[in-house]
Amino acid sequence: MERPNTVFALLDKRREIAGRIDQAVARLRVLEAELAAVDDVIRLFDPDAIPGPAKRYPVFEPVLIGEVARLVRIALREAGHALTTREIAVSVAMARGHDASDSETFGAIRRRVGQSLRRMQMRGEVWGELAGHAMVWERV
């Protein structure tokens, strides 16, 4: 029995993802080695210094130019009514595959959404007004 083109495409995609995983694991090993080297240098200057677990800062994958604005437009269009900045940010976070309950990541997304909304407001694409303690936005 002959395989359809879809199966070949899926097998190619699977190989591509497996390769990306291998690259990510290799990158992780390099980063762990770099962290160990920094710890060694710290001990060189202060032998009594015992670095604790490194605080992990959220690292956000790069956002394509205009991607947040596009996701904001989609959120406003699909809602059909005015939304708060927070509601729009939740929609953007979900669209990008992030967990809205992670406060650090969500805070960064909310800031990006707010910046995007302000730029869109200056261009006349959206209209916002303060309602209580939150900005409410709608399409023009």
Q: Give the strand order, joined by hyphens, for the main sheet.
A: 1-3-2
Shape: flat
Average predicted confidence as pLDDT: 87
| Topology order in helix (H) and strand (E) letters | HHEHHEE
Give the distance, in angstroms, between the N- and C-terminal Cα atoms.
56 Å
CATH topology of the largest domain: Arc Repressor Mutant, subunit A
- Counted by DSSP, the helix tally is 4
Strand residue content: 5-15%
List the domain count as a whole number: 2
CATH superfamily (homologous) name of the largest domain? Winged helix-like DNA-binding domain superfamily/Winged helix DNA-binding domain
Overview of this structure, please?
The protein is mostly helical. The protein folds into 2 domains: 1-56, no CATH class; 67-139, Arc Repressor Mutant, subunit A (Orthogonal Bundle), CATH 1.10.10. 61% of the residues lie in helices and 10% in strands. It has 4 helices and 3 strands; from the N terminus they run ααβααββ. The protein has helices spanning 5-45, 67-79, 85-95, 103-122, and strands at residues 83-84, 126-131, 134-139. The protein has a 3-stranded antiparallel sheet. A hairpin with a 2-residue loop joins β2 and β3. α3 crosses α4 (103-122). The longest helix has 41 residues, at 5-45. 14% of the residues are buried.
Quick recap of the structure?
With 140 residues, the chain is mainly alpha-helical. The protein is built from four helices and three strands; from the N terminus they run H-H-E-H-H-E-E.
Describe the structure using short key phrases.
mainly alpha, Arc Repressor Mutant, subunit A, 2 domains, 140 residues, three-stranded antiparallel beta sheet, flat, 4 helices, 61% helix
